[in-house]
Amino acid sequence: MHICIIANGFQEDYITNLLNNLKSKVDKIDFIGSSIHSDRKIDPQIQFYNLRGNHHDNESFVEKFVRIFKYFYRLLVYLHKTKAKIIHVQWIRFHIIEGIFLTLYMKAIGKKVVYTAHDILPRSKNNTYNRIVFKFLYKIQNLIIVHTSYIRTTIITEFKINPSKIYTVAHGIYQREDRGITREKARKYLGLPDSSIVILFFGIIAEYKGFDILLESLSSIDKKYCFQVLIAGKVKLEYKSQFEKLVKVYNSDKLVFLVRYIRDEEVEYCFKAANVTVLPYKEASQSGVMFMSYAYGIPVIAPSLGGFPEDILPGKTGYLFKPNDSESLAKVLLKFNQEWEITDGNASSFIKDHAKSNYAWDKSCDQIVTLYRILEK
Question: What is the pTM of this model?
Answer without folding.
Answer: 0.89
